[in-house]
Amino acid sequence: MQNFEFQNPTKLLFGKGQISSLRKEIPAYGKRILLVYGGGSIKKIGLYDKVINELKEIGAFVIELGGVEPNPRLTTVQRGINLIRENQLDFILAVGGGSVIDGAKAIAAGVPYDGDVWDIVTSKVSAPSNSVPIGTVITIAGTGSEMNGNSVITNWETNTKAFFNSNHVLPRFSILDPELTISVPRDQTVYGSVDIMSHVFEQYFHGSSNAPLQERIGEAILRTVIETAPKLVNDLNNYEYREIMLLNGTLALNGLTAMGVSPDWSTHLIEHAVSAVHDIPHGGGIAIIAPHWMEHVAAVRPEKVAQLGVRVFDLDPAGKTDAQLAEEAIQSLKKFWESIGAPTKLSDYGIDDKEIELMTERSMLADQIGSYVSLSKEDVRKILRNSL
Ligand code: NZQ
Ligand code: ZN
């Protein structure tokens, strides 16, 4: 294991009816609030009214920033920063999915920073320690943004999707009521399930050694998704399945399985480049790219892919080489994702080879990416071509 520091102070308020905790949690941070939400799903499910009611209860002054896009945009973040500055607000309440929460985090960090918030998003400068405090109400299982310090933002003018990570934007509290996720449509439910699995993969395929506990925790999350997601996609209103998936999403990316290891993250960098150019749903892009990334790394280092096959997909290792097991593991993963209705190729989203060079370019945040297997530009181009 590598040396590591770990701090995750986000308070989780999990379960039915936890929305009423807002009146108890918010006053510690102030009553002048920026309420951030997405394209309207929170109004359809009656959550907006409940939140407003809670805010009234504590006599809050509220300014709204609605319409945060899936794959949230820099221009929206800049609007949020201006709203906080103009109205001297002291707390951000993000109500929605990963996009809404990520947007809120970039706003939080951008407010006390004199320069362009894009400097923070691209990690040129660190998020300030006096970032505006955030609370969240998560409405879709997947990103884990409700309990991590990540924010992923798209600069649509330059087709760049960048991310930063800072403890200064970790939510102070997050409300996780599985009932609020019941309205998530089937396709987004599938994307969330894929995203959770991929977050485990990114940390499971690490460049470090001696991390058996972290890997076993990851395998437990993967097995739980594999057991639950097929039942959930055929029974979207099932509260028990929703609660399992919600907790899975949070634990898959709250730092637990990244302790002491250097995660890979190549699949995410490549997917972020695809959605920066074509604006597709994150989990959909991951479902397409991840198996091709895995094929590439299996050719170089099959052992961990083989381990995944045996421990997660219950392959029988008797008489098989790591390369054979890795190949079967990838087939099992593809079969599983197809069975729940995930997309399999970029052409499912109407993407052809025209922008391959741009997507390759945008994936390469450094000359080499990845830590389990290091990828060159040529490797990324090949993975993208295989994904068409
Ligand atoms: O915008 P609204 O109307 O709210 O609709 C959303 C959106 O259309 C809808 N939705 C959310 N909750 C719903 C619902 N519809 C019905 N009922 C509900 N309860 O779902 C759609 C997708 O929402 P979005 O927030 O975009 O999804 P997700 O949570 O998957 O977030 C995706 C973003 O997170 C980034 C991705 O790159 C992408 O930009 N990521 C963030 C990470 C992090 N912060 O740690 C890690 C991830 O790997 C990922 O990169
Ligand atoms: Zn993801």
Automatic annotation (TrEMBL):
Keywords: Oxidoreductase. The keyword Oxidoreductase applies. Residues 189-387 form the Fe-containing alcohol dehydrogenase-like C-terminal domain. InterPro entries: ADH_Fe/GldA, ADH_Fe_C, ADH_Fe_CS, BDH-like. Residues 9-178 form the Alcohol dehydrogenase iron-type/glycerol dehydrogenase GldA domain. The lineage of its organism: Bacteria, Bacillati, Bacillota, Bacilli, Bacillales. This is Iron-containing alcohol dehydrogenase. Transmembrane segments: none annotated. It comes from Paenibacillus chondroitinus.
